[in-house]
Amino acid sequence: MNEILSVEHLNAYYKKKQILYDISFSMKEGEIVGLVGESGCGKSTLAKAILHMIPKVEGKIVHMTQMPQMIFQDPYHSLNPMMKVGRILEEPLRIRREKNRKEKVLSMMERVGLEEELIDRYPSQLSGGQRQRVCIGVALMQNPGLIIADEPVSALDVTVQAKVLKLLCALNRDYHIAILFISHDLRVVYELCDRIMILKDGRIIEQGKDDEVFFDPKEEYTKKLLSAIL
Amino acid sequence: MNNNRKNHKLYIGLILAGLIVLLILAGLIRSPYPPQKMEASLKLAGISAAHPMGCDQFGRDILSRVMIGARTTFLIAFVTNAIGLFFGILIGALTGYFGGFFDEILMRFNDVMLSFPSILLALVLIALMGPGTYQVMIAMGIVFIPSYARIVRSEFIRFRNMDYVLAIRLMGGSHLRIMFLHILPNVKGTILTSLIIGFNNAVLCEAAMSFLGIGVQPPDASLGLMLSEAQGFLFRAPSYALLVGFVMICMILSFSLLSDSLKEVQG
Amino acid sequence: MMLQVKDLSIEFHDHLVPETVVYDFDLQMEPGEIVGIVGESGSGKSMSALAIAGLLSRKDMRKKGQILYAGKDLLTCSRKELRALQGKEIGMVFQEPMHSLNPLRKVGWQVEEALLLHSDLTKEERKEKALQMLSMVELKDTERIYRSYPHELSGGQRQRVMLASALICHPKLLIADEITTSLDVTVQAAILKLLQRFNKESGISILFISHDLNVVKKICQRILVMQKGRVVEEGTTEGLFENPKTEYTRELLDSIPKIRKLTV
Fold it and tell me: Which residues in C lie closer than 8 A to residue B3 (C-beta atoms)?
């Protein structure tokens, strides 16, 4: 299998403060990798650094295909509140000046499990789960090889969480999209991911196969994370 | 109960605006008398059937002059705010979205502009350009730019780091597209609010400038100019000042009420 | 019986069409009990809690039924009586630790505020009490936290501060609305333990509201399940988990993440 992303010796700074220290990892096509850490450990910074959205970065980030797409935590801020769902999904097509946009939007809505009549709704008229589906649809419109999902289910109800996770899992299986799944909840990460990395204070302190990390953690910190959920 | 109150606002606003529009439109087509025509025998004549608002100190029909004057005042307020808003949005959007060195320079310049009383600044500009209706529009328009720029800028700063803007950047959307298609519509509400204040300020500012004799020049008419003329005869012909003032109040009130209820319907 | 809610219905009247958000809500709480209300967003669980805390507007909402706290009906008693209960007898903590503290005031002042309203203590006594409370909620370095502003604290610290300010007058009932939802799992666990400790030590009753059955299970003795404004199931925690009666509860139980791989 080919590599889709490789990060080597990445240091990132924000306002002169170092946030990430010497991060190195790589992802293969169609792989789901979980990145676990508590708030403030730099996991969102890592996501933005991978997308070249942090100005001060040292190290090497190599994307094998085009830019990855991102799904955000807060479904209230990740959609333009003044645009209808159909128009939001159409935006990437407009930017690329594609034809038959309406059909593509409708087929995408079906793919991510949104009813057709939602096309004329504004984001404020949707539930959290529906919004997150719109975000996933927007990301998929660009046929990415890799999706970075930053806490995509943390703000959702548990019943909705399960459905959104299933959608991500199905996309990975059907379209072979790699997912970098960022979360603070090891349990959710274990459900979905093939490989788990534990981030603490800007450093990756443990990484390995899902079962290894989950059932046989090496680090004290990982054990602490696990004890919180069991 | 809540809803009825909203409706009252809308109806009163609509009626007042209708009156003003009627006045202006009627003046465009045909005023009862030529607005500049003087009649020595009718100097400061009171209200009568032939002259519903009476006559001024030169015996000119006040109703006819109010028709013309309301139009001039409205036009000045409109153009002033159009100029202020256009450049304000442009400057505010660019500085707010990009930030950095350019932003610092422009905003400090902005602070300097804002630290003068606006009428004083307009006075200086008029002194450079000379008095007259168009000069007033330009001078006031320039004076209005900084406050709009400031408001738009702060809104752009609020939106530029939102997740959905990052998402558009990931799609490869250009900065201009993000600024004017994805952020500006979200700022609409705030701009509308400041537009109401701006419009009312412009009407009052025009009145003040005409009052000082550096605004609209006689024999042209504007509400401000007429008010300043009327104050000389406040005791001999109180209806002159009162009626002109009333029209001015109607104009301001109708605009605020309409935009208020419009905002409530939207929000 | 410390709290008894009978046939509570809440109707919104601020839109054109009145909208009922809670139907016939019944709840009894004994002193020292921890009761959980579980439901998805929009199920009316927060509305019921706000009503019990006496925080719903009396103008735009019509409420039917009774909320009896120590024999007094919170829906009909005077505002003065209600205010005397709020903060002193009934404390409430909300979900968003970012928004529930005043960003312009130092933490210490906010923790003390309830004392200012409900007691005659002097400034020094209040400060001493506040510091004591901050260490009760297991915050380290209380002097520093007392002097800091909310933005200088982490989410977990802020939630602890909220707990301290809600508990400083030793209320008999604490209403906790989704207080662990926006926190990291490790911090969640710590906050739950803290609540349990308070319950055991001071016998405070807790009405714990959450969308996450897994969290509720850890601390509640009794659980109410709400859906679309109605209580669809009520029972002891073990009873509910072992033998759920309604389809909806079963669905909620199923959505708890299990230690297993997701399959589609």
Answer: 16
Q: Give the gap in angstroms from C-alpha A225 to the nearest C-alpha of chain B.
A: 28
List the domain range (segments joined by +) for residue B215.
2-34+51-266
What is d(CA B24, CA B251) in angstroms, rounded to the nearest whole number?
Answer: 11
The count of structural domains within chain B is 1
Facing residues of A35 across strands?
A182, A197
Residues from chain C that touch A195, judged by Cβ atoms under 8 A, are none
CATH number for the domain harbouring residue B92: 1.10.3720.10
The answer, for A89 touching chain B at a CB cutoff of 8 Å, is no
pLDDT of residue C184: 85
Residue B85 lies in a domain: yes
Q: pTM (2 decimals)? A: 0.81
Alpha-carbon B237 to chain mean position: 28
Q: Does C264 touch chain A (CB under 8 A)?
A: yes
Position C59 pLDDT exceeds 80: no
Confidence at C223, pLDDT banded by 50, 70, 90: very high
Q: Within 13 Å of residue B248, how many CA atoms lie on the same side as its CB? A: 26
Closest residue of chain B to A81, computed from CA coordinates: B186
| Chain A interface test: which of C186, C210, C256 (most A C-beta within 10 Å) | C186
- ipTM confidence score: 0.84
Residues on B contacting C at a C-beta cutoff of 8 Å: 2-3
Does residue C49 contact residue C58 with C-beta atoms inside 8 Å?
Answer: no
Distances B36 to B44, B64, B247, C254 between C-alpha atoms, Å: 15, 9, 20, 85
Whose tokens are 């080919």? That residue is A2
Which chain A residues are within 8 Å of C254, Cβ to Cβ? Answer: 162
> Does residue B44 belong to any structural domain of this protein?
no
B173 close to A (CB below 8 A): yes
Residues in chain B closer than 8 A to A131 (CB atoms): none
The residues facing A146 across adjacent strands are A178
Asked if A173 lies within 8 A of C211 by C-beta distance, the reply is: no
Note whether residue B45 is domain-resident: no
8 Å CB contact of B162 and A77: yes
Q: Is residue B109 part of a domain?
A: yes
How much is the pLDDT for A135? 94
C35 falls in which pLDDT band (50, 70, 90)? very high
CA-to-CA distance for C76 and C81, rounded, in angstroms? 10
Per-residue confidence (pLDDT) for residue A87, from 0 to 100: 94
E strand or H helix at C147: helix C142-147
